Amino acid sequence: SLLDNLELMTGLCAAKRFSVPLFMFIVSQCEMSADELYRQYVGKNVLNFFRQDNGYKEGTYVKVWEGREDNEHLVEVMDALDLTKPEFSDLVYEGLRSRYPS
After folding, report:
1. With contact defined as beta carbons under 8 Å apart, do 88 and 96 qualify?
2. Same domain, yes or no, for 70 and 92?
3. What pTM does this model have?
4. Number of domain units in the chain
5. Are residues 61 and 26 both part of a single domain?
6. How far apart are the first and last CA of the chain?
7. CB within 8 Å of 31: residues ≥ 6 apart
8. 6 and 54, same domain (yes or no)
9. Same domain as 8, residue 50
10. Do the beta carbons of residue 83 and residue 38 sit within 8 Å?
């Protein structure tokens, strides 16, 4: 089951091991395409850089904007973009920047 596979992957990671075939099987169990996996990975990575650039380590970063968490804004920004563009990550960052309160 998916839960069993997640527990297995957790154990492998705790032992500093990683199974690409198991990971990809888990992705398929979640009915996630390779494109969606890429989109989610890039989006979260960009959000982490955005947070760092805007004071996350210093404790000045504002995680909730206009009553919604930054992750919600990220989803909206990514939904409006073309994943196939080479500058996708830059466009995600710019979309977050344009929404972030100054």
Report:
1. no
2. yes
3. 0.82
4. 2
5. no
6. 46
7. none
8. no
9. no
10. yes
Specify the amino acid at residue 69. Answer: E
Task: Identify whether the C-beta of residue 82 lies closer than 8 Å to the C-beta of residue 88.
Answer: yes
Average pLDDT on 75-99 reads: 96
Provide the 10 A C-beta neighbour count for residue 84.
7
Q: What is the pLDDT of residues 23-44, one digit of tens each?
A: 999 999 999 998 999 999 999 9
Task: Return the amino acid letter for 54.
Answer: N
**Residue 35 in tokens:** 């494109």
Reduced to 3 states, what is the DSSP secondary structure of residue 20? helix
pLDDT at 102: 80
Of the candidates 97, 79, 3, 69, which has an alpha carbon nearest to the alpha carbon of residue 40?
79
Query: Residue 53 is part of which domain span?
Result: 33-102
Under 8 Å between Cβ of 73 and 101: no
Same-domain status, 27 and 77: no
